[in-house]
Amino acid sequence: MQKLGIIGTNWITGQFVNAAREAEAFELTAVYSRTEEKAEQFKTDYTAPEANTYTTLTGFFGSRGFETVYIASPNSLHFKQAKQAIEAGKNVIVEKPAFSNPDEMADMIALLADHPDQFLFEAARQIHEANFKIVQDAIAKLPSINGATLSYMKYSSRYDAVLAGEEPNIFSPHFSGGALQDLGVYVVYDALSWFGQPITVDYQAEMLPTKVDGKGVATLHYPDYDVTLIFGKTVDSYLTSEIYGGQSTIVLDNAGTIGQVDLYEDGGQKITSLGEQSLANPMMAEAATFATIIANHDTKRYHELLQLSQSVNAVLYQLRQSAGIQFDADQH
Q1: What's the rounded Cα separation, in Å, for the pair 213 and 211?
Q2: DSSP three-state, residue 38
Q3: Looking at beta carbons, which pairs linking 64-68 to residues 24 or more positions away fall under 8 Å?
């Protein structure tokens, strides 16, 4: 297994560490946290007693004890930390959204060109799962494409803090937060992977007192159809998602975490189940994919993923501009 360092000791980091171990992809050998106590607790919680701990990024990135870093810090910190990692000769797996805007993305692409032996991946986990590819294949077989409605809404426990007058990171423009960045990125990845780059986009956002979006509806305009994206962090939704193709409709239980895929034909008279059972840990597929690309130096697949990440970054920014959402990172 390849050696892994982590930035961020929250639940999603733990899920990735478990996934990497179960997939026999990465072994945790270095933990960065602002406090030694949290770093040591993470080692204990995720059974990595031999891992080294660090409380400074200089010491962390100066270590030779790992080759790849997984970054799950607040969104606004991703760019600076990924830049440090690449300059230190590390591969990077950065949680979505990778960067706050196209300027940061362009700077990172230029840096990667100067470090051709390093890889950078955006951890958009669902695009590596079996059901995602099943949907992609099913779309290719439709007699036509007449649009789609993709939905992903989930109540955030941090929204209670907003209601109490606070500004948690995930709902703060200072940390590049909001519903579009956190959950909307999933359905933007879906749309661009399945339908390609839209001609124009617009976003009707429901704004919070913190000056970011709590939920909203985005529309991606294509030459012959529109794709509607519904996402939010202030409510729970149980809507299915649909992809329309003449008299055929592909129905997904959830566009962010695809557990069931059904094909409806002949006015709903014929229903075919296409999906596979999801992995217990939804991050296993991406961990295995990243490790394989690094091990095989598969630059073709790597650049496909990097190009997709750039496209998603551009559309997220266009949607934000449509809704008038500004981040501190946009001023740098």
Answers
A1: 7
A2: helix
A3: 65/3, 65/5, 65/29, 65/30, 66/3, 66/4, 66/5, 66/29, 66/30, 66/90, 67/2, 67/3, 67/91, 67/294, 68/2, 68/3, 68/4, 68/5, 68/26, 68/92, 68/93, 68/119, 68/290, 68/294
Q: What is the residue type of 134?
A: I
Among candidate residues 94, 59, 225, 88, the one with its CA nearest the CA of residue 147: 225
- The CA-atom distances, in angstroms, between 45 and each of 11, 17, 18, 123, 215 are 11, 11, 11, 22, 34
Q: Specify the 3-state DSSP secondary structure of 164.
A: coil
pTM above 0.90, yes or no: yes
* Strand, helix or coil for residue 113: helix
Residue indicated by tokens 């991946």: 121
Q: Please write the tens of the pLDDT for every residue from 135-170.
A: 999 999 999 999 999 999 999 999 999 999 999 999
Residue ranges and CATH numbers for the domains of the chain are: 2-123 (3.40.50.720), 127-278 (3.30.360.10)
Q: Give the pLDDT confidence of 248-298 residue by residue, as tens digits.
A: 999 999 999 999 999 999 888 899 999 999 888 999 999 999 999 999 999
CB 19 within 8 A of CB 6: no
Q: How far apart are CA 137 and CA 245, in angstroms?
A: 13
Instruction: Report how far residue 297's alpha carbon sits from residue 290's, in angstroms, rounded to the nearest whole number.
Output: 10
Q: How far apart are CA 76 and CA 274, in angstroms?
A: 38
